[in-house]
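Why this split exists: single-chain examples teach little about how molecules sit against one another. For that reason, every record in the complexes split bundles all components of an assembly together and asks for one structure covering all of them. Below is a record exactly as it appears in the raw files.
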Amino acid sequence: MGMTMTQKILAAHAGLDSVKAGQLIQAKLDLVLGNDVTTPVAVKEFNKMGLTGVFDKKKVAIVPDHFTPNKDIQSAEQCKLIREFAYDKEIENYFEIGEMGIEHALIPEKGLVVPGDVVIGADSHTCTYGALGAFSTGIGSTDMAAGMATGQAWFKVPNALKFVLTGKPTNKWVSGKDIILHIIGMIGVDGALYKSMEFVGDGINHLTMDDRFSMANMAIEAGGKNGIFPVDEKTLEYVKEHSTKEYTVYTADEDAEYDAVYEIDLTTIVPTVSFPHLPDNTRRIDEVGDVKIDQVVIGSCTNGRIEDMRVAAGILAGKKVAKGVRVIVFPATQKIYLQALKEGLIEQFVQAGAVFSTPTCGPCLGGHMGILAKGERAIATTNRNFVGRMGHPESEVYLASPAVAAASALTGKITNPEDIA
Amino acid sequence: MKAKGTVFKYGSNVDTDVIIPARYLNTSDPKELAKHCMEDIDAEFVNKVKDGDIIVADKNFGSGSSREHAPIAIKASGISCVVASTFARIFYRNAINIGLPILECEEAVKAIEAGNELEVDFSKGLIKNLTKNEEYQAEPFPEFIQEIIAADGLIEYIKKNKN
């Protein structure tokens, strides 16, 4: 029986000719990742093992991005702990303020993941790198500690769902974010539980790498173990621009088995919004109704890339945000920040009345830099709208694309970008 | 391994943000985390929970973030075991890795009510409802995972196998 793309990558890293769904394997890791929330716990566990060093100084990455720049004394202490660990163990890919970014935008940008890799990260959105044709998945701190120690992790080989994307989006405002919100709305927040989400089809040709990163990023919001795209010319162009690492291209066998196959006609997708309090509570933009908002958040590991900045700035340029609406834009990395600066996007944001922040996960998880009060509503290009996600348990988060978020900033209510022109 | 206690019952998609909100993640001290466990979904939980009590929930328990602080907070609050119809996969791994026993059993979740007294045998996957005098059979863990649990978590398992 044939293997899916994910199964082939896992088999190769387990030193096996083939694997099948449900099989428990030990796989070699190409990268082990952690952030300032999860790494302190991993360091404590790592230290229990009495080892002098990590398995490979080049294959561990630590990115303090969640509560940084340090939001309070306790966060500063957590960052200090992981900084000292990184220096002590001579971890090459530790990224301090000034060179850091939101991990899932930073790691591909630094060329640390290439097609065919196996990556674990103590952050659920580690699945982002599936956009590059790698197997990457979120794990917890103890798995991170074990991975840093042994360079291996155990996995149950996943079953898979196949998403055949066809056609080219006809709505000019549709992005990868709308497609993935549509898919999550269709299959539910546990629709891909324990499974791979494999994206295929000619529709992928019309998706930029930034679109694909947004989509793979949110595989976890459908419960998926990973989301993965085939490697094509766009992928290889990205890899050559960012990395010198050797890569391997894997393709699914024609007779690979899938639990279900879904056809997604991209010509029918419209801007899509997830209502509180689950990402699968989606509505088409024309079914949103009158939803007033207090805050707009544009950024995050889902939508803080340069295309996202361009789309949002393009809508806000030469206009003013609605009175009483707080608009927070945060690019995902220093490189994106600089690019936005060079292109004049930051000036457009500031002139429009938005604030432009240093890279941080802060507002997305209700950490800092944009917390909501009781009863307040935000539209955000982030990935979760759970109860209390961005602040008070009685606040609300609506998930959308940068285009919808920027259009909404101008009107003070959730708005179709088509209506702003 | 066995657990015995009173049931706290929840619905589907109990996510890690409500198990332990991110605003408390500036520490990893289990006792501090336990003070805020389930706060955004059940403010009374921390006042009512007793050592040995059991959480029973429907589908996709522990969805969302990879924060190991979630099973750590649950364990430190005194909960001895979580029974759910399904678990989100990262939570599932994390629970095993830190030694918080969990079982998947849809039949049990349907029948068990808040406040029921349960006795759970993990190695057999057997859940006894002492209040209703019923038994439910969950799939026991695969042998490999039972070894990790028997070693008291992944780190001890690795130490043991290294020597």
